[in-house]
Specification:
Two copies of one chain form a homodimer. By secondary structure, the first copy, chain A, is α/β, with parallel strands linked by helices. Chains A, B: Pfam families: Beta_elim_lyase.
Chain lengths: 366, 366
């Protein structure tokens, strides 16, 4: 059996897991619908109480005039950028080289919307004000992702965001927020969602990351913006006759977890310290700024898989089900804190990290 | 109160309704999931047992090599046509003037894919072989909708389909089936789905028309075709992390209703006879060829609303909740038979149509 399969199998058999809210299974839907009256009418092509109420609730929470529910963030964000491009008569947007639209969407933005992205900053660091100052004036929109997921969920300081926003607005460049994990960074910024979103002309948020829903996204902004977004939603094939399976579950888990983001953040910081105590292991960022971080190993993937699988089998505590190779002697994984972390007995957690530290110390000497 | 509101309200209060399967409410989802084990894993971005099993089942049912589940038919069909266009290096497709892509999708095909449709046939009749013979050779794809919904769900005879398919294949033109209501026409053709689909290179079917699911569609064809479709699904924002709310309900209601299509068809023919007995009322087609037909009135919309609302209040039998105006003295509505029709006591049904015939006779004399 390859080590990667052994790692996943050992992980699946652990009693406790550090990341996540639990399994993505059908029970997630059943729990969300358990107390919903069967007589409640479906939304119908974007209309009806179920969808309107949730869109209004999210618009208010994000401090925007209007909000539209989408089946996916991929669809919502391409559409947001397209609207800003059409408004300016430009095909240029700017974003980070590891932006979701650049690396995870099969070039939908380019192939469907013929939009040319300019990549700002180096892949391994955040977009800073200096990068923004060099953008061309005919740019339609700058996309900022908070936190920058692919580099461990790093964040610029709030004043940098304010400066970027001011600069763009003076230049007539729209600013769009990829807030896939926006809820998760509010405890770090010590701001409300509306205070962060006020710096942006349009905002996307997701309901299956920290919130733990089934799928779905909100795109918010001015009424004129969302009215256009609804038309594009139809064009993309996202204006489903019924989106309520995602809406009702998003609403359910939003209410259940939005107040826990501070707890997840504190737990992430606590857990990162434990990882950083192991030799040849470090977290990115060193001190997390949300519920997520990356764990990097100065060892080959196969070696780390062996160490971790052994840990799971010995302690019953699972850390990750898979690793990504960086080069022949480096690998990493992403970890997001959810409801499961608080269920791990602290004593067993610390014992597991003692074992882990020993193993990596041994690996170092070998 | 406007007559149209009165009609809808009276309809909603009827004891029996002739069309449909029942209310589109949350109970539809609850029923589909009642017997599903909560431990069943979600599909993840198009992978996993839940989605694979249903895609395989539908590929086999449609007689195609491979099938892909989509959140919507709008997305599935645009993508199907795009793939055939790219394969031929052409931007031309042909379809009926009242094709869903032409009138219900905010020009997504044109705005996202830059595809130029050629409109075949007049809006009020089916595409015939003669129309197809005149198509240009550089056409990438011909789309045929079975049944042609916007003209009452009419169908070409099967031999015409065979001839159209043969002609296109000889010319190197792909043939795509808009089978939103394919299941519903199989009893008329007395063919299996696979026998019909064999005439087409790609096929779309829907799960919330006759099947009565929540939403969702299948796009089927050769493996090379569906592999491309999966990439485009990601680009469109349709490759959701979890599509199981639609997949499981589609599967549930497919199993429940696929064998009832013959019954719906017979009931539609029976019901059309009753409408056609009323003066100034006729169905299109006169003899239905599926579970659906249109009911046309040679009277102003307001007058018919008054007659129908009166009928509902007097007999407790609802026929439609809304009418569409054709011109100042003509209107119509669409009717699709589902599970509700069999619940209407025959005696009450015939009494209602006696009342209706009387009312229209009176209206004629006035």
């Amino acid at each position: 059996m390859p080590e990667s399969n052994r790692l996943l199998e050992a992980y699946q058999q652990t009693k406790y897991q550090l990341p996540g809210h639990g399994k993505r299974n059908i029970q997630v839907l059943k729990d969300a619908f358990a107390d919903v009256d069967g007589n409640l009418d479906s939304d119908i092509y974007g209309k009806g109480e179920v969808i309107q109420r949730f869109e209004d609730k999210m618009a208010a929470y994000l401090g925007k005039e209007s909000a539209v529910f989408f089946p996916s963030g991929t669809m919502a964000q391409q559409i947001g950028l397209r609207i800003w491009c059409d408004a300016k008569g430009s095909r240029k947007v700017a974003y980070h080289p590891l932006c979701h639209l650049e690396i995870h969407e099969q070039d939908g933005l380019k192939r469907l919307h013929h939009i040319d992205p300019i990549l700002l900053a180096a892949p391994d660091r955040l977009i800073e004000l200096e990068d923004v100052l060099q953008m061309p004036d005919d740019l339609a929109c700058l996309l900022i992702e908070l936190p920058q997921r692919e580099i461990g969920g790093q964040l610029p300081d709030f004043q940098t965001l304010v400066s970027i926003s001011e600069f763009c607005r003076n230049k007539g460049i729209k600013v769009h927020l990829d807030g896939a994990r926006l809820f998760e960074v509010l405890p770090y910024y010590q701001k409300t969602a509306a205070e962060v979103c006020a710096l942006f002309d349009s905002v996307y948020v997701s309901f299956y990351k920290g919130i733990g829903g089934i799928a779905g996204a909100i795109l918010a902004g001015d009424k004129t913006f969302t009215e256009e977004a609804v038309v594009w939603k139809r064009r993309h094939g996202g204006d489903l006759i019924s989106l309520y399976p995602y809406i009702i579950s998003a609403d359910h888990y939003f209410d259940q977890r939005i107040s826990k983001m501070g707890q997840y953040y504190e737990e992430a910081k606590e857990l990162a310290i434990l990882f950083n105590r192991c030799e040849g292991v470090h977290t990115l960022p060193t001190v997390p700024v949300s519920n997520m971080f990356h764990v990097h190993f100065d060892h080959a993937k196969g070696q780390v898989e062996q160490v971790l699988a052994g840990l799971y089998e010995e302690t019953g505590i699972g850390v990750t089900g898979s690793l990504r190779e960086l080069d022949s002697d480096k690998c990493y994984f992403e970890l997001s804190i959810g409801d499961l972390y608080e269920k791990v007995p602290k004593e067993e957690l610390h014992r597991a990290f003692e074992v882990l530290a020993e193993r990596f110390a041994t690996l170092r000497q070998a």
